[in-house]
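Q: Hi! First time doing this. I have a protein sequence and I read that you can turn it into a structure. Is that right? Here it is:
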Amino acid sequence: MIGKSNFGGGWVMVRARHLTPESIILAMEAADFYASSGVTLKDVARPATALALEIQTEPGVTYVTQFPGTRRGYDPTSQLMPSRGGDAKAAKALPHRRYRKDVGAVLAEVEGAEVSYTLKGDEIYVRAKIISSKPKPNGSVSGEVESAWTQPLVNVAN
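A: Yes, that's right. Below is the predicted 3D structure, encoded as structure tokens:
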């Protein structure tokens, strides 16, 4: 609703050594955090060639993890999209571009609480999107479920 706060809709979970501003900033600069709208991760491991995570499960809730990423050789073509209200001035102020389907394509999908993706070698990046079956209590759209998103694992070999 316009003008009303929807607190608790999403947040970031930071793995900081200490609960101090300096430690939190260092962890965020190192990409040691994830975004969530309800899903909690027990661990996120990011060795050079893999992304592995363990989900803190809840009884009766199922989890599917998608691994979206972009591979070398993708088509960089994009289109400038109009704003939702059709306002050309707003579209210029807050540009929104639509890219080809190979940008951010789902490279793998895995069910369960312990999942991983190992780089095949041609990925520029890959991240994890965890989708639970648990309805989001204060969702902004009907049918919204709790989710989480990791920071991308960048393939330094590229």
